[in-house]
Design a protein that fits this description.
about 300 residues, about 75% helix
Length: about 300
Amino acid sequence: MSTPATAAVPAPSRGFSASDLAIVGVVIVWGTNYTVVKEAMETLPPLAFMSLRFTLAALAMGALLLAVEGWKPLPRPVFLKLMGLGLVGNTLYQLCFILGLANTSVANSGMLTAVTPVLVATLGAVLGVERLTRPLVMGLALGVAGMLMVLGGRGASQHGASLLGDGLILGASLCWALYTVGIRSMGPEVSALRITAICMLTGAPGVVLAGVPELLRLEPAHLTAGAWAGVVYSALVPLVLAYFIWGRTVQKVGSSRAGLYNTGIPVVAALTAWGVRGERPSWMQVLGAGLVLSGVLLSRRR
């Protein structure tokens, strides 16, 4: 997963601090969430899971916004922009992510989403948000090469990994990159929490409606306690609590340093999938993931 919007602040802390420790915790939460979601979808249909999860998360995020900042009306153009970003960064993203994860392995999903920071930097350069530099071009080349190795290294041990699932995960990465670039243009007058909450609330209707047919066919008596626990956990911890912590702490350490921590998410995802689900990646995929992460680090050089 990528990050919500944050306002830039001058002179972030340079030493390892409690804020860095909090961000490491967020990375662990987001990395392990792939396995939590995959395990829950073993007994709960993907779209039904997505609908229940996002309904709970949107309500909790809205309540958090009211408790922390209260309701403040936004100018119409700002609200419409956030609505559009909510459709891309939540509705489309969630559909691609959940359906992609349902049709591929956790390890593949984590490794493929590692290319997101490179996509963000590339889109930012194309749209004029960032400057196109040599490290960015080299990072993109490494990222693409690594992504192809991850796709080509799929083996029999990948637990249902498919080209369709991999393609949907890449689509989710593209949606999140567009969302991230879009929120970078928001002014400091709109807080990170408000941006995240409004985008989540405006993106929620499409996510919820997409899962209605599966919800109507759902027989709650046949679902395990683990599936329900997965819904509650994945809604409240990765989508609400982790976003809130990230938005508060990244301002203290700086967005560049926080972005480097983000490269640990696919590593945590792959290791968790290996330990819990036995999804052992091939050496070709490990090498490909290494190229992707190297590309991300290189693209962030100035």
